[in-house]
Amino acid sequence: MKERAIRFGIADGSGRRASTWKCWIQTTAGKLEEDVYLLCRSLGGALKASLHQSGAWHIAYSEEFFADNVDAFADRPSGRFIDKWRPSEIAPGVILAFRIITPFSAVNIPIASLNDDIVWIPVSSPDGAIEIDIFITSPHVLVSNWPGKNSMNTNLVGSILLDSDSKVWVVYRVIDCPNFKNIRGIPRYFEGRSKDDLRGKGLRIIAFKHEQDGSRTILDSALVKDN
Q: S-S: 10 plus which of 18, 31, 111, 128, CB 3.0-4.6 Å?
């Protein structure tokens, strides 16, 4: 099955990066499907967001990963779905599906090789963060440049035009680093890890947040431990 994809990540120009991401639409028999998918590439497909044309949107573990790891989860979830919701428009014909927020401190992974298929976004200043936004616009919406260019000062990463003339946009902007000290939740560990493994260097965390406009925010961060 073929696909149209945008692969992107943040890099500092000195050999370090944050997580890389993939936003894509699959094609069947030469025709683009209308379902949009998003995943963090370092998780290897274990967890992804599915934005279905039907309006049934969710974030879920893959069936294989959930079956192999459910017993290791501290809260032992009853199903593989982390979140389910219905999309809502922030303006007529415009949906802001996701924000991906990456603080400056998260750009700490050595780059093994510069992959030509990844769009590299420049890192923020040390006291800032990069917000990457995934927009979906309906066919009747006239977009002269890209969403948020003037109102939000965004920059274009890439876009995918669907057969229906709807369009998926990936844009980014520089923001002040949010205060994440009040984040609360039950952690789930990847690839069989547990709390006992929170001792090494280079640890990372991905967190999800519900926004009032109906979108979801993903925090891609280095794990900072209190002394």
A: 18
Amino acid at 90: I
> What stretch of H or E contains 178?
none
Q: Where in the chain are the domains? A: 2-222
What pLDDT digit, counting tens, does each position of 100-137 carry? Answer: 999 999 999 898 876 678 999 999 999 999 999 999 99
Rounded CA separation 154/177 (Å): 16
Q: How far apart are CA 65 and CA 224, in angstroms?
A: 26
Which tens digit of pLDDT belongs to each residue from 168-217?
999 999 999 887 666 666 666 655 555 665 555 567 788 888 999 999 99
Q: Are 207 and 219 in contact (CB under 8 A)?
A: yes
Q: Which residues pair with 109 in a beta bridge?
A: 17
Cα angle 181, 186, 188; round to 5:
110
Phi, psi of 30 (to 5 degrees): 80, 0
Under 8 Å CB-to-CB from 204, ≥6 apart: which residues?
Answer: 19, 42, 106, 220, 221, 222, 223
Phi/psi of residue 66, nearest 5 degrees: -65, -45
Encode burial over 87-119: b for 16+ CB neighbours within 10 A, e otherwise: eeeeeeebbbbbbbbbbbebbebebeeeeeebe
- Per the structure block, which two tokens stand in for 145? 């440049």
Distance CA 118, CA 62 (A): 24
Pairing relationship of beta strands 128-137 and 118-122 according to DSSP bridges: unpaired
pTM for the predicted model, two decimal places: 0.87
